[in-house]
Write a structure and sequence with these properties.
Order of helices and strands: EEEHEHEHEHHHHHHEHHEHH
CATH topology: Rossmann fold
Structural class: alpha/beta
CATH superfamily: Alpha/Beta hydrolase fold, catalytic domain
Shape: globular
Strand order of the largest sheet: 1-2-4-3-5-6-7-8
Distance between the termini: 30 Å
Oligomer: single chain
Largest sheet: 8 strands, mixed
């Protein structure tokens, strides 16, 4: 990956394809979850795709303190300025979905559209239990072998993940263990402090594609509830369910995910 020094930070990034710009913001644990997606020709032949490692992941700069969601969004904006990218589409997975939503709040004129892949939101009836599970996970991380905690998290979100993950991203589990301190000590505290509810959702007029894994609702009710909440709370949201996938859906079925994104962007060409 290339490296950019922005606002005193080093951020690893990669650019592929040509056309309108899309930034893809990864979630917790696995920094390269979009790698299988950004090689799909449905996207690369029409769009310029930017992926990057958020602070604390792989070779990007570490942080000595927890980062807020607005600070995570500011990092992305700094990289975009460095690369000379103006208005663009944003795709956010899990924790990255929270960052994407914050970007739309902070600089609405810059964001053409959002695609939210099971974003990490504490909403609805399951919101408080999700919050409690994250706080418990931080305590568990401080008391347990990092590899065990990472395995628990990934298994709960992608049952039987280990073999398919190794096939699509060799070495990803080991990297996730290496980056676990960032996940639990830097970003989850910031997520717990973040507030995003209906008032904030109503401030986002851009087209939004809310993506749910076809098997995610049965796996954990929070995923389905968050998806339905987004559809009812955002002014211009539409749904896509990716069959046969759970939380790491863009790695489980990148081809159909790429085609769904392309179709979404095509439908909203006249409104961007």
């Amino acid at each position: 990956m290339e490296r950019a020094v922005v606002d005193g930070l080093t951020l690893e990034y990669d650019v592929s394809g040509t056309g309108e710009s899309i930034v893809l913001i990864h979630g917790s644990f696995i920094a390269d979850t979009f790698r299988p997606l950004v090689v799909e020709t449905a996207l690369t032949r029409r769009y310029r795709l930017l992926t990057y490692h958020r602070r604390g992941y792989a070779g990007s700069s570490q942080s000595e303190r927890p980062l807020s969601i607005p600070e995570q969004a500011a990092d992305c904006f700094a990289l975009l300025r460095h690369l000379g990218i103006g208005r663009l589409h944003v795709v956010g997975h899990s924790f990255g979905g929270a960052v994407a939503l914050q970007m739309a709040l902070d600089a609405p004129a810059t964001i053409r559209s959002l695609a939210l892949l099971e974003p990490a939101l504490m909403v609805g009836a399951t919101g408080e239990s999700y919050r409690e599970s994250l706080a418990l996970a931080i305590r568990h991380f401080r008391e347990t072998e990092p590899g065990l905690v990472v395995n628990e998290f990934l298994e709960a979100r992608w049952p039987g993940y280990r073999a398919p993950l190794e096939e699509v991203l060799p070495g990803a589990f080991e990297q996730a263990v290496s980056d676990a301190w960032t996940t639990f000590e830097i970003e989850l505290p910031g997520l717990l402090e973040w507030t995003f509810g209906e008032a904030e959702a109503r401030r986002i007029p851009q087209p939004v594609l809310s993506v749910l894994g076809g098997d995610s609702d049965a796996l954990w009710a929070r995923f389905g509830e968050t998806h339905r909440w987004l559809l009812s709370s955002l002014p211009n949201a539409e749904s896509y369910v990716l069959p046969g996938t759970t939380h790491f859906l863009q790695m489980q079925n990148p081809r159909d995910m790429a085609e769904a994104l392309t179709a979404f962007y095509t439908r909203h060409t006249s409104t961007r």
